[in-house]
């Protein structure tokens, strides 16, 4: 099975085919290490904080298996017709010869995943005596009385164990033979099954001291230990959001950039517990929350084209603060920290997106004219109608690729917020949620 993975990976590399669909930000770091581990036919453990795509990466390994593979029809462990390993299949192959029935198994059925929980038992992973088979008349020493666990049942496939340190140490011991000798031991039975499996696992490095650890003999049996990470580039962070978020409304690129920058600032903040990390799921949930805010406004105010605006990002602070772990000395300051970092993300996005545009005419017009009102209860059309008719308004919309009414309002709101954060105009937020730039 490992040779099969190796050959398919080499074929993908030679053909320039993407062997890791949907995996973003690991192209120059994690993936080369994983590819070398697979070419060396090593079992692998991925170490990294939450939300770094470890499980997604493990599941992608399935694409390197042959699409279909033959198995003995009805065999408990999905054995190859030429290589039966259980007593029952060996007996059937000897009796039936070329008439042995063959079925075809899809590669998706050759991947098994187990979340390591404290109540996981040896029977779950390896197997145990089946009292029903004993009651049917078989002797207690008969190997056919064994009920096989997850690992043997994934013979000729990939076994993935998530959060391996959460597995009790005595349960981890049961995997030692699987990892090295490629067989299993069940109670007092003398069973030697030449299992053909790739064992992969994920773990959070902090789990070694917090909830558990990977025992040294098991850790030693993994051929490769690979560290994952959060996206290193802002563009990768945005791409992850675009790929994973189920957006119910139009969320323009500059709003996604604000959320991506916000997430990255959280990962750098000394107020946030970096041992826990800030998951990529935070940015994904933030984008979905912002889209929901736009849908909510459209439903209440009767807008036909719901488009997220920078004002909608403020909902993220209230809704998602529970997804961020803060340092113990920051108790009571969570909202303050999140609001400050969101403003920084918005200011950075406005500066990068609108750099080179002279917004002076817009500042002068607001200074001399009526205040501009926006907010969660203000329609995009009302916001645009309140803006002065100036060429710079069209220039901002053009720079951000805004064409519809909702997109133009979102683009201009970013410009207004950027001017406020640069201390060029004032802003007041009323109790009813309206924001007034003046």
From TrEMBL:
Span of domain PrkA AAA: 121-267
Gene3D superfamilies, alphabetized: P-loop containing nucleotide triphosphate hydrolases
Single annotated GO MF: protein kinase activity
Pfam families associated with the record: AAA_PrkA (PF08298)
PANTHER family per the UniProt record, alphabetical: PROTEIN KINASE PRKA (PTHR30267), PROTEIN PRKA (PTHR30267:SF2)
Protein name: Magnesium chelatase subunit I
Organism expressing this protein natively: Rhodococcoides kroppenstedtii
């Amino acid at each position: 099975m490992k040779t099969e993975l190796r050959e398919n990976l080499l074929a993908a590399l030679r053909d320039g085919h993407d062997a890791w669909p949907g995996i973003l930000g690991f192209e120059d770091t994690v993936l080369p290490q994983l590819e070398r581990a697979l070419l060396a036919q090593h079992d692998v453990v991925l170490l990294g904080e939450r939300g770094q795509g470890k499980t997604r990466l493990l599941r992608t390994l399935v694409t390197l298996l042959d699409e279909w593979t033959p198995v003995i029809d009805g065999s408990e462990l999905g054995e190859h017709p030429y290589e039966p390993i259980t007593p029952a299949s060996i007996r059937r192959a000897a009796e039936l010869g070329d008439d042995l029935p063959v079925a075809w198994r899809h590669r998706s059925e050759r991947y098994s995943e187990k979340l390591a929980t404290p109540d996981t038992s040896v029977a779950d992973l390896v197997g145990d005596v089946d009292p029903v088979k004993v009651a049917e008349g078989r002797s207690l020493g008969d190997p056919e009385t064994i009920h096989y666990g997850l690992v043997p049942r994934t013979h000729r496939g990939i076994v993935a164990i998530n959060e391996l340190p959460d597995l009790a140490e005595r349960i981890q011991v049961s995997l030692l033979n699987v990892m090295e000798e490629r067989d299993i031991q069940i109670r007092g039975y003398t069973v030697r099954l030449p299992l053909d499996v790739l064992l992969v696992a994920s773990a959070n490095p902090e789990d070694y001291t917090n909830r558990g650890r990977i025992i040294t003999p098991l850790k030693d049996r993994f051929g490769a230990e690979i560290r994952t990470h959060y996206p290193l580039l802002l563009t990768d962070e945005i791409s992850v959001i675009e790929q994973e978020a189920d957006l119910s409304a139009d969320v323009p690129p500059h709003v996604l950039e604000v959320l991506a920058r916000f997430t990255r600032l959280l990962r750098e903040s000394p107020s946030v517990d970096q041992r826990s990390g800030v998951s990529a799921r935070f940015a994904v949930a933030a984008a979905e929350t912002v889209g929901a805010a736009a849908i909510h406004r459209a439903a209440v105010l009767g807008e036909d084209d719901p488009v997220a605006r920078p004002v909608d990002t403020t909902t993220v602070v209230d809704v998602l603060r529970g997804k961020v772990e803060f340092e113990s000395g920051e108790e009571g300051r969570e909202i303050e920290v999140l609001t400050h970092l969101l403003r920084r993300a918005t200011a950075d996005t406005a500066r990068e997106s609108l750099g080179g545009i002279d917004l002076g005419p817009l500042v002068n017009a607001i200074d001399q004219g009526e205040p501009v009102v926006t907010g969660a209860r203000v329609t995009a059309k009302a916001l645009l109608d309140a803006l002065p008719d100036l060429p710079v308004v069209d220039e901002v919309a053009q720079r951000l690729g805004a064409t519809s009414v909702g997109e133009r309002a979102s683009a201009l709101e970013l410009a207004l917020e950027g001017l406020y954060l640069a201390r060029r105009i004032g802003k007041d937020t009323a109790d009813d949620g309206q924001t007034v730039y003046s």
